[in-house]
Design brief:
mainly alpha
Length: 154
């Protein structure tokens, strides 16, 4: 999809925005015992903190590593573009979920001073992973690629 650094940054900004907002909504809903209208507004309180974290992680660390790991699973010369996209998306979630769960626990669940920090981080990661994968494959991925194609038509 992105063909240069500018496009990569725009794609990352969009994808991080959709994923972060969706995952914050999910975690707020978990914390209050279900999804209510207030969840969607409450998510905007954490968004300005978590969105830059996600963008930086993706641009500095996760993006290149996810691609390297994906290309261990699929051969880019013989795999159809959809297979490559799914492999990279899966590896991105696999790497980002524990990282973003760590920062969520650090900022919003008592931080490193919490005596059960590692357990809380592990539980948060396990709860977040299935939702992050589904959100990536069925909502954020298709939506962001649609928006991206409208911004950068080929």
């Amino acid at each position: 999809m992105p063909k240069n650094k500018k496009q990569d940054v725009v794609f990352t900004l969009l994808m991080a925005a959709v994923m972060v907002y969706g995952m914050i909504c999910y975690n707020v809903a978990l914390n209050i015992g279900g999804c209510r209208n207030e969840v969607f507004l409450a998510a905007f309180h954490e968004f300005p903190i978590m969105w830059p974290v996600a963008v930086l992680l993706e641009l500095i660390f996760v993006g290149r590593l996810a691609q390297k790991l994906a290309f261990r699973l699929v051969d880019p010369r013989t795999t159809p573009p959809t297979g490559i996209m799914l492999a990279i998306s899966a590896m991105s979630v696999w790497l980002m979920c524990p990282c973003m769960s760590f920062f969520a626990c650090l900022f919003f669940k008592g931080g490193l001073l919490q005596s059960e920090f590692v357990s809380i981080w592990m539980q948060t990661t396990v709860l977040n992973f299935p939702m992050a994968l589904l959100l990536q494959f069925f909502v954020a991925g298709p939506l962001v690629r649609l928006i991206f194609r409208r911004i950068f038509p080929d």
